[in-house]
Amino acid sequence: MVARWIAQGELIVVYEGCALQLGAWIDRHPGGRLAILHMVGRDATDEINVYHSSKALLMLERYIIGRVVEPWVNVKHPIWLLRADDGSIIGGQDGPKTASNRAGLQLQSNRGPATNHPRLHRAQLAAEAEEQEQQMCLRRTAALYQCRYSEYAVETVRCGLLFGGFVYLLRCEWYVTPSLFLGFITGDSATDTHIGASIAGLCCGMSISWWKSSHNVHHLVTNMPEHDPDSVTSTFHRRRLAWSCAAELLVPYQQYTYYPMMALARFNLYALNWLHVCSPRVTQLDAAPWMRPVELVFMASYWALFAYLLVWRTLPSWSVRIAFVAVSHMATILLHVQFTLSHCSMPTCDLGPTESFVQHQLRTTMDIECPERLDWFYGGLQFQAGLVRNFCEKTGLRYHCYGVREGNGIVLGRLGQIAQMVEMMVACQKAMAEGRDGTMQQTGT
């Protein structure tokens, strides 16, 4: 019966054996609509526990409509199955459609299973879940999930020293050198959002709501080209990506342009953040009505400080200004490379609704091994999976962890493979088109 309700468009998620009807909550969910839509029909116990505090979990009781027959077998919600001719999906940001709206839709085919990542049987999944719960208990006992507020003071002092060095070098008229320094909670949603908006907006010119809107979904459906917001082909972006002359020119050489593109990536982030804040999506993905004006104020303040007071009023000439802006933004290449190392070379196939949350994260994620003294340099981004070595050894799941050089080599190698595949596909398409044109000409004569 639950599966039939889901097929009819009901937003039902399974948690701890209970069926949650989340239709009344989805528009107020701080993590956005898509985070819920992608969990409809699934046992989302692991995902919900990982993402939410104990206070938030207590709110789930009001949405329980009954218990499901266990063990629950995940079913696919229409958001996973159907894609419209124009590239949009049922569900999307506007929620699932009824059967009368399904005309002109075609089934999405799944990619084949990834090598070295076999499907787990039900008994193996149960053993994995039990082992995961034991690991979670050990981490809670070790207080690994407790925020150590004293560490914020240490980081504040560290950042203050860096900023002091930046100001000192600027006063010494070493204009390009200090530009390198520019690249670098409480549990209450509203408070944390204000803190995040002030840091992201005022210090970096970024939107915290843009990050939340994409990143929550990204870690639920990591590396799925149709749904992961980090994929340019994702339906999250509500656009159809056409093959263009520019793509045909650049894609074959993408392994060579990878680092230059990463050096310019911050300018792309500026554009994405402003497009997000100025679009209706910002009000759809966050329940707080004050989100847009707060972020606009902080982001505008960043540009007033950086572009006007610092670059325009402080630096003496256009050559110095251009060099300062270029170096300060290119210095963030280290951060953007680390972003892409985590997932870009990992599998993009869909193993279906029976794949567990933990297995999916491990299958699509790469960690980077580095000396402990460099942890601050990487900002923790090198540990996307982390603390799972013992768990993987006991459950037989594969943990991908490589050194910095090897990780970069894997990404560059994968970019080269994809470039070769695309070249072959384009050549085949052109050959087919030429053959079809020749056949039509012969028929006409």
Describe the structure.
With 445 residues, the protein is mainly alpha-helical. 52% of the residues lie in helices and 5% in strands. The chain has two domains: 2-95, Roll (Flavocytochrome B2, Chain A, domain 1), CATH 3.10.120.10; 186-403, no CATH class. The protein has helices at 2-7, 33-37, 45-51, 54-58, 78-81, 122-141, 150-171, 189-204, 208-218, 245-250, 254-263, 265-277, 281-284, 291-312, 318-330, 333-341, 357-363, 375-378, 389-395, 404-444; strands at 12-15, 18-21, 64-67, 82-84, 105-107, 367-369, 401-403. The strands form three sheets. The chain has a three-stranded antiparallel β-sheet. A hairpin with a 2-residue loop joins strand 1 (12-15) and strand 2. Helix 8 (189-204) runs parallel beside helix 14 and helix 11 crosses helix 20. The chain is globular.
Features:
mainly alpha, two-stranded antiparallel sheet, three-stranded antiparallel sheet, Fatty acid/sphingolipid desaturase, Flavocytochrome B2, Chain A, domain 1, 7 strands, 5% strand, 445 residues
**DSSP strand tally:** 7
Secondary-structure class: mainly alpha
Distinct helical segment count:
20
Please give the alpha-carbon distance between the first and last residues.
Answer: 62 Å
Task: Report the sheet-strand fraction.
Answer: 5-15%
Order of strands, main sheet, comes to 1-2-3
How many separate domains? 2
Give the proportion of residues in helices: 40-55%
By oligomeric state, this entry counts as: single chain
- Topology as a string of helices (H) and strands (E): HEEHHHEHEEHHHHHHHHHHHHEHHEH
Summarize model confidence as the mean pLDDT. Answer: 75
Largest sheet: 3 strands, antiparallel
The unreliable regions are 82-115, 178-184
What does the overall shape look like?
globular
If you compute it from the alpha carbons, what radius of gyration comes out, rounded to the nearest whole angstrom?
Answer: 24 Å
